[in-house]
Specification:
12 helices; alpha+beta; 37% helix; single chain; 5-stranded antiparallel β-sheet
């Protein structure tokens, strides 16, 4: 059986305690062939010692927590003398900043003969607080019952202060992002206005992070209703900044410049995004842009116009799902061609037709039994199987199937989908 008193004296006596401890551990613990054979308490202590290169703060208490002995480093750190500490309960250095359940867990563990390791915030005699990384173990009698406790601790105040500062900064950042979410939410189309203009539709919007790089857009004129699903470069905060730019530019182009043909809207959007981000400059490093699916629906007729920037439109028509492909270039970003001109697609819808607009967040989601992308093919199959359901039911089905596919996998990207029935 190892000798705790010898171990404590050894630690207390020298700044090279670890090397000396390793030299003498064989005598303390018996004739052991290797460190792997050490008693579990000693092995745990080694793990604790290796983390630090400073003098330890050592104390010993009885089973009621009354201090029996402390080393000089304990006195130096707490600013109490040894005489002031001996006979006092260890609570004399308790700061009040540690939840009571931590101490309950600590005492429960060591009173049953176990070892406890963790960080505690203590206070000195002048009430200055300090953090320690501490190892606490019981001294057991021959029956295995604790007869006293000893601890070896190290000052980690600087590290914990840095951690607290980082956590405070993270909290501030998260609060700012949550506020940004509220701002972003206010710019999204008004649900009542969309319900009034598009009597039978659904919207599925699932940001990957708190704020989204996807957005959906809606506006109307006397003769037309305009709807778009837009996927900006990136997600989270960078994508959200792009979404604000895209949303405002679309409103300006349609409502102020009175450009009402989808292809011409995308042409102008491309020019203005590049201008806003100064992407025409040779010194610009911005390659950000957006993929867009944009439709203009005639209010009192059967005409629909579509233009796509790297996004298709799916059209359920006469018991068949038709894919109308968009152009193979995005809005904004690096432009290698002399001029970027988008294609305007025109088609007539009839009663029972449905159009689907979506970002690639759903189809690119990894999951399933083989951790593969959900894929456009699966989305098409899902539409074919469920086109007869109401818009409300379809939205629920798309959401459930996507979530089941994702399962425990991380969400790959922002997800946006709009369905409009005629």
């Amino acid at each position: 059986m190892y000798n705790y008193e010898e171990l404590l004296a050894l630690i207390d006596r020298s700044s090279r305690f670890q090397e000396m401890l390793e030299d003498r551990i064989g005598r303390i613990n018996g004739n052991l062939a290797s460190k792997e054979e050490l008693h579990p308490v000693i092995a745990s202590l080694f793990e604790h010692l290796r983390k630090h290169h400073q003098l330890p703060i050592v104390s010993e208490t009885d089973c009621d927590g009354v201090i029996i002995n402390v080393n000089e480093e304990f006195c130096r750190k707490t600013k109490f003398t040894k005489e002031e500490l001996i006979g006092q309960n260890i609570r004399i250095i308790k700061s009040g900043h540690i939840p009571s359940n931590v101490f309950q867990s600590l005492w429960s563990r060591i009173s049953r003969g176990g070892v406890w390791m963790g960080e505690l915030k203590n206070r000195a005699k002048d009430f200055e607080t300090f953090w320690v990384d501490i190892f606490i173990a019981p001294v057991l009698d021959e029956s295995g019952n604790p007869i006293r406790y000893w601890s070896v601790a190290y000052d980690v105040t600087d590290q914990m202060k840095q951690k607290e500062e980082n956590e405070a900064k993270s909290k501030d950042i998260m609060e700012s992002i949550r506020y940004a979410k509220r701002i972003q939410k206010t710019i999204l189309p008004d649900k009542n206005a969309m319900d009034k203009a598009l009597e039978n539709h659904f919207t599925l919007f699932k940001p990957k992070d708190i704020v989204s790089g996807d957005f959906y857009w809606f506006t109307s004129t006397v003769n037309k209703v305009f709807v778009a699903v837009v996927d900006c470069t990136g997600h989270g905060v960078p994508g959200a900044f792009m979404s604000l730019i895209g949303y405002n530019l679309l409103n300006q182009i349609v409502n102020q410049q009175n450009i009402h043909t989808p292809a011409k809207i995308l042409n102008e959007l491309h020019v203005q995004v590049r201008s806003t981000l100064k992407q025409d400059s040779t010194e610009s490093k911005s390659r950000d842009g957006m993929d867009v699916c944009l439709c203009a629906i005639e209010r009192y007729g059967e005409d629909v116009e579509f233009a796509g920037a790297f996004r298709p439109l799916l059209w359920w028509h006469e018991n068949e799902l038709v894919e109308i492909k968009g152009d193979k270039f995005s809005i904004g970003g690096e432009q290698m061609e002399e001029e970027r001109v988008f294609t305007n697609h025109f088609f007539e819808v009839s009663q029972g037709d449905i159009i689907y607009m979506f970002s690639d967040g759903m189809t690119d989601q990894f999951g399933g039994p083989d951790i593969k992308k959900f894929s456009t093919r699966r989305l098409k199959d899902l539409i074919v199987e469920n086109h007869h359901e109401s818009m409300h039911v379809q939205r629920a089905l798309f959401n459930i199937v996507w979530k089941d596919w994702k399962a425990e996998e991380e969400q790959t990207d922002d997800v946006t989908m709009i369905g409009i029935a005629f």
